[in-house]
Design brief:
This protein is α+β, with helices and mostly antiparallel strands. The chain has 4 helices and 6 strands. A hairpin with a 4-residue loop joins strand 1 (41-45) and strand 2 (50-53).
């Protein structure tokens, strides 16, 4: 015969931080993690400038070397996004605003979607990439977005 026992107790509430230091810069903290990551990932600030990108992220998105992208706007760094039609047209400005890294910035929420990235050379095929982005908060406001990519 099964036996079920229920016990009620007060909820554990962790003590609040008693620190007098200002809240840390989460974008700065994530920067070193992203730049050293083995996974394809990207960190942009609220102005859509690349703060950090992993080497694997550069390779997957056909962007060259990470050092050449730092401080540049995400869409001025050579990222070529295409629609999913047979014509392979570049995304319109309205469609670009909906890509996960930018949508996480504007909405302040988790964003996910597929991206079609144009290959670096004409001989290579385009990459389809699953992107999951989360806003990065500093002092309760969106200060950037962190995106992880996976080739589909």
């Amino acid at each position: 015969m099964a036996h079920v026992e229920l016990s009620l107790s007060e909820a554990f509430v962790p003590a609040a931080r008693a620190s007098t230091e200002p809240e840390s810069d989460n974008v700065g903290q994530w920067s070193s993690t992203v730049s050293r990551a083995d996974e394809p990932c990207l960190l942009i600030d609220a102005d859509t400038r690349v703060v950090a990108i992993s080497t694997a992220g550069c390779e997957l998105l056909c962007l060259g070397e990470p050092a050449g992208l730092i401080g540049r706007p995400l869409l001025d760094g050579g990222l070529r996004l295409l629609d999913f039609t047979a014509n392979r047209c570049e995304l319109t400005e309205a469609e670009i605003d909906k890509i996960p890294p930018l949508l996480a910035l504007s909405s302040g929420r988790l964003a996910r979607g597929l991206l079609r990235v144009q290959a670096a050379s004409a001989n290579s095929s385009d990459a389809t990439v699953d992107a999951i982005s989360t806003p990065v908060l500093t002092d309760g406001t969106v200060a950037g977005s962190l995106t992880f990519f996976s080739e589909v």
